Structures are given as C-alpha cells and as structure tokens.
Amino acid sequence: MGNLQTLINYHAPLNYAQDLSEQIIDQGMLEHPGLGSIQLWKIKETNLPLLFSFHVHIFEKDSSIIDIHNFRSSLQHPNLIEYFACTSSKALNIGKVQSQQFFFAYYQKTLKEHIQSTAMTEVQIWKIIEQIVDVMVFLQRKNRYHGNINSQSIFITDNLHIKLLDKIGQNPNRNSIKDDVYDLGILVIELLTKRTNQLNFIQQIKNLYGKFTLQLLQLVAKMIDENPDKRPDFNQIQSMVTNRFKEPISLNNLEKNAYQNKLASRISTQGQLQNDKMKSTQDQSLLRSQYPYLMSQKSVINSTILRCDTNQNLQDSQSNNASPSNLNNQFLTPRKILSGQKPLYSTTAYRGSPQNQRYLDNQITPRNLEFNL
C-alpha cells in the first residue's frame, strides 16, 4: 500500500505478521453522511463484514501513531466500533505533513435509518440511550470523547446493538463532554419525534408531555440546558438512567424541590394553556351577559328599604278613633322608602271610609318586619 509503517491490532482477525495490503481488498470510496469520505475494504478469504478507513493529516513532529495505536487497541467496549489497524505514510513535502489511515469495522445501517423505518416504544428508546450513555461513560473515564453524536454517525446492528466511534487521538477540552451531552439530548428528541432540525427543542419536549414518561422528558431537558455548566456529565446521566424508577431525576437532592418546580413549568403543555384561556374567555362572556342585571340589582339593594310596622299602625289607629277627620293625616301607613324619591304606592291607598279601614287593619296580626330588597 506504499506505507512506511503498518500497525495491526492484536484483537483484530488479521495477521499482524503479514503486510496489511496482502490481507484486504479495496471496495471503493464512499461519501458517508456521518463519517465523511471513507474507503471500504474486504478481508480476503473470509465472510467477515467490511472494513472502512479514513485519513488524518498531521504534522510529522506532532505524530504519535504508535501511542494512538496502542491506546486504541486497549479500548474494548461492546458499543465501540472495533479497531483493526492503522498506517502512516512518509512525509513527502517541505511541510513535513504525514498521512495516517485508520481501519475499523463497517456497519451499514445507521441509527437514523432505524429511526425512520421502525416504530419504537419507550422501552426500546431507553435501551438505545442506555447503550450510548454506557459507552460514553467508558470514554469519559478514559479521557476521550465523541465529538459528533448524531443519528448518522451512530450505527446499529440487526440485534439492536449500538456502535459508535470515538474521537481518535484527541483529548477533550473543557466543554467537549458537555457538548457531547447536548448532542445526545438532541438525538433523543429525534428518537421521540422522528424529526431533525427542530426550531424549538424545549417546545418539542412540552409537546411530548403525556406521550412519554416524565423521567425521560426530564432527562432530555437537563441534557439540552443552554448553560453547559448546568448539564450533567455522562457519569451523572448514567446514575439518572439507572435510578429512574427509584427516585426523581435530579443532580442534587438539596435542589430537588426547586428543580422539580422549574421542570414542571418548563414541561407544561400548550393544551393546558389553551384550556385556561378558553375558561377565562367563557367567564368573561358570562360576566358581560349578566352585567346589566347585576348592576340593576346593585342599584336596588343600595337604595331601597321596605319597612312595615303594623303594630305601630294599629296603635295609631286606635288613638285617633275619636277624630275620624284627622285619620288621613295621622295614620302611619307602610310604605316603600326610596332614597331621594317619592313613594311609589301606599298599602292604605284603598280606604272607602275610615270605618272600613279600621276593620281591615284589625284583621292583621301585629308583627314587626324589616328586610331589604
């Protein structure tokens, strides 16, 4: 293959005592949506899956191909794509740029293809999350990161085993892990909605309320927090996932109540807001329809008092029996007293004669009444 140096992983199904070019056959180039420009290879005389390789260009003085090879050979995890070999070319130009080529197992089906073709239950989604988080915890503890978590750079086997590739030969910076956490949160939203390029991720989580468990939505909300310092790392996420049935998801039990209150407000549904708005509109309409009646009742209540003292009226009638001519002037009649108005009627408007009136009044049982209208 014209390479100066070839290093083969002793875990790979290759003969490290034999030249790599004699063991594999070129299957052509491929522009992969998640991996970029890659080259496919087939191992001779085997039915093993294809390999793929990609190139990295680096200054010769910064080259550490042997260290990278030894470290990558030591990484053994069921969800990591298997590493097979690497080669390094001789620096040919004045800039002393060296070309390195890395060989890995190739898996054809991406997670994106699986998402688009399969109706997944929440249990299946949790299993995918658990696998990704588990391998990312492994990389984090090895001081490595992914750098490109998305549905097209992650592969899935027929047995639903997740396979992904780490960032070869690079240590994470301050925010690399938290960036991977954010990217995983976006990937989970795609698992839930089957959609990418969401305009408002928090709004999408709110729309999913009631369709998935609160634990799952809470976890996603934490992973896509705008502040990287508030996002959990993969060790914390793994703890949340493992204990999701035992206790509410929270980074700190001391902040449990405040966190849950904040999450409840963030994951409120648009439907509830619409119901509240509709109820408010109905209440306002009812109030407007009853407003004229309520105002008229208020006017009557504030201004009208009906008083009736029949006992006093009988006493006054008896005291004036000797002077019938004064009966009309001295007889106290029950009347409706209106503030600032004349009485509308009198209960003694029909007399006929003073004698008739006294007879009618004697039929009334004396009682004192006072009530408001």
Low-confidence stretches: 250-260, 298-311, 317-351, 367-373
What is the topology, as strand order, of the major beta sheet?
Answer: 1-5-6-4-3-2
- N- to C-terminal separation? 107 Å
How many beta-strand runs? 11
Instruction: Could you tell me the CATH topology label of the largest domain.
Output: Transferase(Phosphotransferase), domain 1
Helix content: 25-40%
Q: Name the CATH class of the largest domain.
A: Mainly Alpha
Topology as a string of helices (H) and strands (E): EEEEHEEHHEEHHHHHHEHHEHE
Q: How many domains is the backbone divided into?
A: 3
How is the main sheet built? 6 strands, antiparallel
> Per the principal axes of the C-alpha atoms, what is the gross shape?
elongated
Strand content: 15-25%
Q: CATH homologous superfamily of the largest domain?
A: Transferase(Phosphotransferase) domain 1
Mean pLDDT: 76
Rounded radius of gyration (Å): 44 Å
Which secondary-structure class do the elements indicate? alpha+beta
CATH architecture of the largest domain: Orthogonal Bundle
Throw out a few tags for this protein.
3-stranded antiparallel β-sheet; Transferase(Phosphotransferase), domain 1; 12 helices; about 375 residues; 6-stranded antiparallel β-sheet; Phosphorylase Kinase, domain 1; 11 strands
Helix/strand layout:
Layout: E1 5-8, E2 24-32, E3 36-43, E4 51-59, H1 65-74, E5 83-88, E6 97-105, H2 111-117, H3 122-141, E7 155-156, E8 162-163, H4 176-193, H5 201-207, H6 214-223, H7 234-242, H8 256-266, H9 270-303, E9 304-309, H10 310-319, H11 327-330, E10 335-338, H12 354-362, E11 368-372
Antiparallel strand pairs: 1-5, 2-3, 3-4, 4-6, 5-6, 7-8, 9-10, 9-11
